[in-house]
Amino acid sequence: MMDLETFNKMEDKALIKALSDLLEHCEWVLPKLIAQRPYHSISAIEQELSTLIASSSKDIQLHILQSHPKLGLKKFEPGFSQSEQQQAGLNLLSEEEFEKLNILNHQYENKHGFPFIIAVTGLTKDQIFQAFKDRIKFESGDELTTAIKEVTTIAKIRLGKLISES
Known about the structure:
This protein has helices spanning 4-9, 12-18, 29-34, 42-54, 58-67, 80-87, 95-112, 125-135, 140-162; strands spanning 2-3, 163-164. The protein is mostly helical and 166 residues long. It has a two-stranded parallel ribbon with strand order 1-2. Helix 5 packs across helix 9.
């Protein structure tokens, strides 16, 4: 973990590498985020990150969502997604639960055009399954908005694991 002062002073390439796990496969956001330095607080970084994601074009937002790892795959991507999904118990699914999650993933992605995304930190697998069932019913435009908010929440949680105020 680095402190805010280090974040503000670190060389761009080194900082991009240090923050590479912030959002999977969305490297475009990091140069824009660090170009706004110096930041006076972590909440200011979070706000800028939220603004960058929310103000990006619909095509970029879809790319963000489509690049995000699916929940409950037997092979997790390394980095934060793996530990976050393990914390939620998604690595301990029974075969029946795993099959149910695969069906939900498939149905959701067919309907909305991107994988189901939820900030799993602090959630149980039952809460995740319920959110899946609830959100699969949403209209795709509304779900795009919800999924982008979830990505932003995930990024903020991860930012808190990478940078401290002092």
